Amino acid sequence: MKSSAAIAAALCAVASTTASAQGITGGQLGIEYNAPIDGSDFGGTTYSGGIEYGINRSYALSLNAAGYRPDNFDTDATNVTLHGTYHFDDFSSAGIFVSHDDLDDESITLVGIEGGTDIYGGDLTTYLARSNDDDVTVIGFAGEYAIRDAISVIGDLDYADLDGGSISQFGIGAAYDLNGGPTFYAKIGNARYDDGTIDESAGFVSIGVDVAFGAERGTTFDTRSIFDILPGF
């Protein structure tokens, strides 16, 4: 996790000093903390970063990386996601992605499609992915709606159909954009695991901050990870 987060931070640091260079359209850094509501064992911190390169006005490549550190487990996890994006216009984009999760000696690769659009004053994104061995299918949605100039309502929903079970999470909250600088956010949600025998769920609270830079204020899409669906594992 440390190495992955450091790589992401280094990528974004370079991008922030070269944002005016041809091709670099944006980047971002973020940190999020998840805490359980009911005192259960899950919860932890996520470190993330990303950079986007515009090939031309319509096509872009972006790389996002994240490191996950649970509070109560002696392990770390990482994710790296590569996106190929097509911009229809200034409001709508779609693309494909390849995502790789790694936890100790276990790993999973997801390949999927994604899209996003501005609609009725809000932002909506969605994605659909399968694992490289077809044992896992993942779908997710995320939205943001500005209720004032600097304040937005945010929400997300993710579901993963695993081989012999499923995990899911949903959350809703609010974000505050500090005058074009960092964006602070908080949300409350619920994560669930069901394998046909065990069906457990737990509520959680997330707080975080994102710093975006460049002409496009960050990357078009974010990480696509199984670990994002079950915060803090």
Question: Gist?
Answer:
This is Porin. The chain is mainly β.
Give a verbal description of the structure.
With 233 residues, this protein is mainly beta. It has one domain: monomeric porin ompg (Porin). Helix content is 9%, strand content 62%. It is built from two helices and twelve strands. It has a twelve-stranded antiparallel β-barrel. A hairpin with a 6-residue loop joins strand 3 (59-70) and strand 4. The radius of gyration is 17 Å and the shape is globular. The protein starts with a helix and ends with a helix. The model is unreliable at 1-10 and 12-21 (pLDDT under 50).
User: Going by CATH, what is the homologous superfamily?
Assistant: monomeric porin ompg
Provide the CATH topology.
Answer: Porin
Strand order of the largest sheet: 1-2-3-4-5-6-7-8-9-10-11-12
Count of spatially separate domains: 1
Low-confidence stretches: 1-10, 12-21
How many H/I helical runs? Answer: 2
CATH architecture title? Beta Barrel
Strand content: over 45%
